[in-house]
Write the structure tokens for this entry.
Amino acid sequence: MSAVLDDSGTSAGAGNGSSRRGFLKLAGLAAGGLALEFSLPLAQAQGPATGTSPEASVEVTAWLLIHPDESVVVRIARAEMGQGTLTGLAQLVAEELECDWSRVRFELVKPGANRARNRVWRDMGTGGSRGIRGSHDYVRQAGAAARAMLVQAAAQQWSVSASDCAVDRGTIRHAASKRQTTFGAVAQAANRLPIPESVVLKDPSLWRIAGQPLKRLDTADKLNGSLVYGMDLRLPGMLVALPKACPVHGGKLVSFDKAAVAKMPGVRDVIRVDDATVAVLADRFWQAKRALDALPVVWDHGPNAKVDSAAIAAMVADGLKGDTPFVGNRQGDAKAQLQGAARVIEADYGTPFQNHAPMEPLSATVQWTAQRCDVWAPTQVAESALATVAEAAELPIAACEVHPMRIGGSFGRRLATDYLAMAVRIARQRPGVPVKMMWTREEDMLQGRFHPVTQCRLRATLDGQGRIAAMHMRIAGQSITSYVNPKAMTANGDPTVFQGLLADSPEGHFGYEVPHLLIDHAMRNPHVRPGYWRGVNTNQNAIYSECFIDELAHAAGQDPFEFRKRHMARRPKHLAVLQAVADRAGWGKPAAEGVFRGIAQYMGFGSYTAAVAEVSVKDGQLRVLRIVAATDPGHVVNPQQVEAQVAGSFVYGLSAALFGGCTVKDGAIAETNFDTYGVMRLYDMPAVEVIVMPSGGFWGGVGEPTIAVAAPAVLNAVFAATGKRVRQLPLKDTDLAKA
Amino acid sequence: MTELHVNGRTMRADTEGDTPLLWVLREELQLTGTKYGCGVAQCGACTVHMDGAALRSCVMPVSAVPATSKIVTIEGLGQTRLKVVQDAWAELDVAQCGYCQPGMIMAAAALIAQTPDPSDEDIRSGITNICRCGTYPRVLAATKLAAQRLRATGAKQ
């Protein structure tokens, strides 16, 4: 079996190949576009690269290949997990390149190849809604540089000036001499040209490909079953491995009785993977599962064997009182103001663990020998994955490669590389044999990297004009960073805890002006392993702050929208999205009989978002009827994909807030499949209207920001409908029928 | 040896009788379009058609599949008139990650085959597949579009 390698990793036949760096300066644009200056490596390959016509396709910059048949293959370094980043990045390249969009295809970059070419494709990690906003500048430059090189090649052939040539959808024309040629015809010549020292990027107002609601590039094979996901991969001679790790995080594997299952059909082996994990190797998934389910295993569940949700809740609640050194936002002296206040409005909120539960459970296929390790896996962090693989393989990194696969949903789960290390450890016990490690849904649920459990105590007073005079928001609970990346912890604790609550941050700052404000965090870490879950801490931060703001509006006897507006004079972009949803939803005008509204706004991952939810509650049954949402991400590359992501974010966030929640029993997560971990289905889906309102001047994210506003808007609508404040989630735990 | 009639062909699989049909399709017949999402018939990613009706294949032991049953998987849908569903999915750009969509498409196809003029409520309660990316609004729209197209085709005949 041959490993599939991207041979651009072996480029540099000629002296001016992969080690030379090209520098680009961006000129200021007359139309008020970018004026940036920075350098980036645009190493140029001399040799052929992958593609359907390897002998004839050439790179024009490392970012794209041009084939003689005029097809353009755009190289994608970020991970595509359904969020549409792949298509958006290709649109940005194609916009500057001015090729024929119908000819555009894509190719996924591999991390070993990136490393071998001095990281010419830069960051591959995809998270924090940064896939497009973190790449747009240099991928556009690549498109512009490639266009310039192709034009130059044509101009040289014609002995004319490049500035007298025009490009239109992959055709280059010299009007004066009525000559024309195509990208495919001049690509070879362009490949031999130096990369231009400066390129001029188009102003987004001139976009004709970017900014358009084009269809995704990566759809066709999803509709007929031909797309091979990680779970589907088949290699000759492959074995399947189903692992089971100790259900209590931190516990240990004591022993297992291999003999009890060794003779079952197809079973090849039962192995200890590490100090907490056993695995069955078999020919087929069901053979492995049958044996794994029957395998006697003895665990040492460890010190957390008796921990349950109540114990965790008590541990977290302890952080609601007393002092803490971790402050996210401080204005004035909230504590003193609250001390002396005549009327304090106070509420305690809480949100539970959540599981990513992507439709595709975790998997990785590994072939390990003493010389080489290849891994085929879905991952959001291909370069970190490669480092993890090399370490687990105990091989030099240059002897390893990760072949990224297209991902059946991820939402942050595949930011972790735990499953890759595990797969390598398994495959090392079968040198030379491809081993596909597959997690059952139950294993995926038990061995999640959970959205953290937190509670929040909010206390506030109003002034004589009915505005917020002082507010203390104490968040208590789990820090993701302290587990995932302890080196990133600061003297002020976990920097991600305060997402969207900071005083001033391009990623997300608090929308309201409160003269005395204290937002702080008391860290309490249970043993359940945390991770970054779509929206991360903006989820509960928005629930806590936007539901409490609603409580304050009610205490002030004011309309929730008008009350918010009074505190947003210095937040025009927050207010603009809030105003947009209020206008579209008809806020202030009566809703239909039995329909009640709630509103929320939040800034996260660089974008401003807001939502109005319309709900009905009959006989204790909540129906979310309609959500009107607005997002301002600064720029929009594909508006119809933005709309899809916004609607999708509501499904993800509302599933968790209404039906989800992971509880802990005897130290382990209790919800091990979709029968107990509730999610939204089509029946539950409200009508969603999305206002995409980019205001320009910045680049905000799309995949996550709007997830924050759905739950608080719905919860505020539930209050309007029932007079009940639901402060503990998931909402399914509250009986809305009771008075 | 089990004999199955899949996508218009007779195929043979050497497998234990308690193996779910899902895994026989995926691993013995190399038809990996039908997906594993939960294994307990909750999510619908494993949906195939058995004699025209939607079936969650993850909980159907292959020994319980009648020998005469005609099974259609996502790979075979394109050869049937129900390919209108796949076409509608493409037209409305329904899929995000795509992992749930084979099962979703098969569920929608069975629905419109049985209910040629489905109401929104028919579709909402008839398709219970899980999509974590949240493509539900477009699933609804594309199912309606596919039903409309199928009716138009039928009307011409």
Remarks:
- The CA atoms of residues 42 and 129 of chain B lie 8 Å apart.
- Chain B touches chain A through 58 residues (CB under 8 Å).
- The longest strand of chain B covers residues 2-6.
